[in-house]
Amino acid sequence: MFDPVLLKNIDLPDSHLLSTYEAGGGYRALAKVLREHTPDEVIELVKQSNLRGRGGAGFPTGMKWSFVPKRADKEKYLCCNADEGEPGTFKDRIIMERDPHQLVEGLAVSGYAIGARTAYVYVRGEYVTAIRRLEQAIAEAHAKGYLGTGILGSDFDFTIHIHCGAGAYICGEETAMLESLEGKRAQPRLKPPFPAVAGLYASPTVINNVETLACVPHIVMRGSEWFRDIGPDKSPGPKLYCVSGQVRRPGLYELPMGIPLRELVEEHAGGALPGRRIKAVIPGGVSAPVIPASGLEVGMDFDSLAAAGSMLGSAGVVVIDDTTCMVKVATRIVEFFHHESCGKCTPCREGLNWAVKVMRRIEAGEGAPGDLEQLDMLCKGIFGNTFCALGDGAAMGLRAALKHFRDEFAAHVEERRCPFH
Amino acid sequence: MGMREQIETAAARYPDRRSAIMPALLIAQQAHGHLPGPVLEEVADILGVERIWVYELATFYTLFHTEPVGRFHLQLCDNLSCMLCGAERLLAHMETVLGIGKGETTADGLFTLSTVECLGACEMAPVMQVGDHYHGNLNIARVDELLDRLRASAPRVETIAPAAAPSPGE
Ligand SMILES: Cc1cc2nc3c(=O)[nH]c(=O)nc-3n(C[C@H](O)[C@H](O)[C@H](O)COP(=O)(O)O)c2cc1C
Ligand code: SF4
Ligand code: FES
């Protein structure tokens, strides 16, 4: 049994309160860094741990922090990405609802490391309970001197503000989030400049996911070696896996990075529903290319999944069984991306619109010969040609569905109906 | 606290008042139910920002409603995990019992029915958000129960139209 780290508090009564968090050793990491470490030492510690971002891209966190210029004359910002819009993902919500102080402490330690005095947590507006719990946690932490000015007798000042999103998936893309925070329509920015150099209000800014920040206090308390020893060396740590879809025990599982997808789905989540077989699994939110049942031995970490042609993404694991039409699944996913396309660049805006039309007609049994090639061509035209990774994600997902389940697409066109109806 | 003070409190969190447009719109929507033109102009005036900036945001983000919505906004997730767990059946059922299609409001103004993208609660798929609350692990019986409970909780209005009457279809 793996001893939970990030989820160790969540089943305690009143797990969201400061008293519960403190009783489990909470805020000791903040006290420790303020007493014993310079900001650069904290960055070095996180670098040594090989912590990689849990928001989707897996970028090394310590390295990202080290890009922030050391000049003291410019305000620096820490932004927490709690937009959690990737379909299949619900881990950040559960952290914020059930253990919000873990995030507050993670923010304070990380803010100290990068020299920020202000943090904004960008939470999707639908997460009303999470927002209330986080507000309460911030207020409690202020009252106890873990936030505010001269924290715990040091000269570190730090404040956390919540910014509520308003229902746009693209706000999860970090530069679109910065636009949104500045009060603009959330359309991604051109990079460079990278946010670490010129981000929020053109100031140096670090953007990290909720789960990434929640790991930081544990690394401070237990050391970088402890963290690196969990799972693969290059992609280590405890990991939250969100399991949903056609599976016996959907839920949030904390297990080491790198565990086989099959073990997660079959053993921990109980496998397929009675009388059914697993046909495919999406391992990292709908942006991650689908893996057919034959590929479930893959390890759930950034590098293993990339090598298998998919990605860990947000670790939103969606299980699909043999009663489900893959054309329908793929159509729903492309519809989602089309709906959420911000419209800034043509390949994504127009390409996805076109793809949705073709896919809906195939699904309805009205596909024409050549439609599959048409979709191949659209994927090629979108992938690598878009302004941000939303378009790439949509194209990669569609390409994988066409590759692994081409016979299902072809059957729709040939039989002029959905074989699953 | 009045709307103006709430907006000023929000604005104090940012070095630039433009950043406060989103929080201000959420506050205004809470106060007015939706965001018609005059409300958008009031928000712009309180913050002292360009009106076009406010319009831009009110029309970009799906949680902002420039048109009125029913007293209970039924927001059923029909993204992948919820679809795999039967969201379509629930949608069809609600369309039948409410006598409206998605995007429509019942004639008594009680219910607006919408489908939304993933609510970030797929472990309890299929899920529907109504107001501040998530209702998960839904099936037809639980949806019926929920609709009854919501109807019973609404204050009675004398001019109420028959509950089953279909809306004229907006
Ligand atoms: C379209 C799109 C949506 C994204 N949505 C999220 C999200 O909801 N939450 C998140 O943490 N990262 C999201 N990301 C990734 C962020 O851009 C960014 O890489 C991440 O927040 C960085 O934090 P990390 O290094 O801690 O992972 C998204 C990226 C793209 C392209
Ligand atoms: S890829 Fe899509 S979401 Fe990203 S900038 Fe282009 S249009 Fe917007
Ligand atoms: S797909 Fe419905 S809540 Fe995620």
From TrEMBL, chain A:
It is an enzyme of class 7 (translocase). It comes from Mycoplana dimorpha. Belongs to the complex I 51 kDa subunit family. This is NADH-quinone oxidoreductase subunit F. InterPro entries: NADH-UbQ_OxRdtase_51kDa_CS (IPR001949), NADH-UbQ_OxRdtase_suF (IPR011537), Nuo51_FMN-bd (IPR011538), Nuo51_FMN-bd_sf (IPR037225), Nuop51_4Fe4S-bd (IPR019575), Nuop51_4Fe4S-bd_sf (IPR037207), Soluble_ligand-bd (IPR019554). Keywords: 4Fe-4S, Flavoprotein, FMN, Iron, Iron-sulfur, Metal-binding, NAD, Quinone, Translocase. SUPFAM superfamilies: Nqo1 FMN-binding domain-like (SSF142019), Nqo1 middle domain-like (SSF142984), Nqo1C-terminal domain-like (SSF140490). NDH-1 shuttles electrons from NADH, via FMN and iron-sulfur (Fe-S) centers, to quinones in the respiratory chain. The immediate electron acceptor for the enzyme in this species is believed to be ubiquinone. Couples the redox reaction to proton translocation (for every two electrons transferred, four hydrogen ions are translocated across the cytoplasmic membrane), and thus conserves the redox energy in a proton gradient. Pfam families: Complex1_51K, NADH_4Fe-4S, SLBB. The keyword NAD applies.
From TrEMBL, chain B:
[2Fe-2S] cluster binds at residues 77, 82, 118, 122. Pfam families: 2Fe-2S_thioredx. Keywords: 2Fe-2S, Iron, Iron-sulfur, Metal-binding. Signal peptide: none annotated. Binds 1 [2Fe-2S] cluster. CDD domains: TRX_Fd_NuoE. This is NADH dehydrogenase subunit E. It comes from Mycoplana dimorpha.
